[in-house]
Amino acid sequence: MFSTNVLSVISYLLAGMIFIFFLVYTIQSILEHEQRAALRALILAILLPLPYAFFAFVSFSGQQTILTILIAMTVLTGIYLLFPFHRTRIDVDRIPAGRIDERDIMFSRRLYEKGTERYRTYYRSHPEYKSIDDGFRANPGLLGKGSRFYHPLMFAAANASFISVTALHSLVENETISVEPVHLPSGQVSRFIKNWAKKLGAYSVGITTLRDYHLYSHVGRGPHFGREVQLPHTVAVAFTVEMDKTSLDYAPYGPTVMESARKYMDAGAIAVQIAEFIKQLGYSARAHIDGNYRVVCPLVARDAGLGELGRMGLLMTPTLGPRVRIGVVTTDYPLLTEQGREEWTVQEFCARCKKCADACPSKAISFDDPKEINGVVRWKIDQEKCYTYWTEVGTDCARCVAVCPYSHPDNLLHNLVRKGLKQSSAFQWMALKMDDFFYGRKPTPRKPQKYLE
Ligand code: SF4
Ligand code: SF4
Description:
By secondary structure, the protein is an alpha+beta fold. It has helices at residues 4-31, 35-47, 49-57, 63-82, 106-109, 117-125, 127-137, 152-167, 169-173, 186-200, 245-248, 254-280, 297-303, 345-353, 355-359, 383-393, 399-403, 412-421, 425-439, and strands spanning 204-209, 235-242, 285-288, 308-309, 315-316, 324-331, 371-373, 376-378.
């Protein structure tokens, strides 16, 4: 057994470490404008070290025993949290049953106008969607005047970004290649594209083999509506752009749709430039950008190693969670592909967390474990409920993205927690409790009155 003096020194050290950790957490939270977290971390910084300092400082007959128990409990708790005990694999199917038809997604269905041939044809073959879709059509609509969170400036700003990204569609559709193919090593071109994409503003970039299930079966939007999707490409470059955390903290108010639109524009601009670059090398390439996709971006990005699909069905990246927009470029240039490493911590944590489901104002996110839907085991959100909410409030909501514990900023403190999540089930349990404690189970959105003023 250690002497009381040695135990006292260890106890002081533990008190100091705990104090410094929570003090850093306090400062970091202030920098992140997380007042509730800052206050609570400060309280923990003061309270938690007290027993260690007290029992080390005050001399009494059982001091040695108490210090031994305290230190042993601390060490054992640390071991229990960090050693890979009790991992529970949550199995989800990675490959869809078949190609998804873009005509069935809400972004396409919202465009079917009553009285048109397209409307009649679609609902003749899909009568099950008609009353739901007519319901959201009666609402003011996304960025619509009269919607609950309508703000003339914020909605105009978001519209400006959406209009700008639409202006890029003509470049996307341009298939002209006016130069002879150059022959450069695949590795060199792949590296160049990845580094350049980051210079252009991408947060992460991956390259994967283009698979059949990445493609939509039919075009759901634009002039080629209804056409079967065929791409003469073998490779896809997928990248993410970061969405600003502070803007998302206003979700579901106007700032969040401004941020979404801005990032669709950013992703579109990067994708178009990469596609044009590949065409300059004499190869076919196509950018897939907002309103003009031929591929299901989250599936491509996952297979390119950029993340996993979680409870909300969005790409969950390792360091920003779902707080990203995705861009994709497909090409026949034989770029070097990589196999995304399967990482099932996200699904394991999602099975426990359910914070997005709690926070979702339309109750579109399931609390259940993944289950079989059309022969595929996965989580699926109720896209009709979600989109209908958007058309009532006028924004694209994103409350789920804002509250996700993976959405915290990419910095040392939060990345330590993300590392811990991979270690053990116990750590995940504790991290979730702490996230609820610091930020709230249902964090209150920031009010947008002062935004940009
Ligand atoms: S909030 Fe929780 S359950 Fe929802 S996606 Fe994020 S980690 Fe998963
Ligand atoms: S965007 Fe809003 S309504 Fe849609 S799933 Fe997320 S929280 Fe729910």
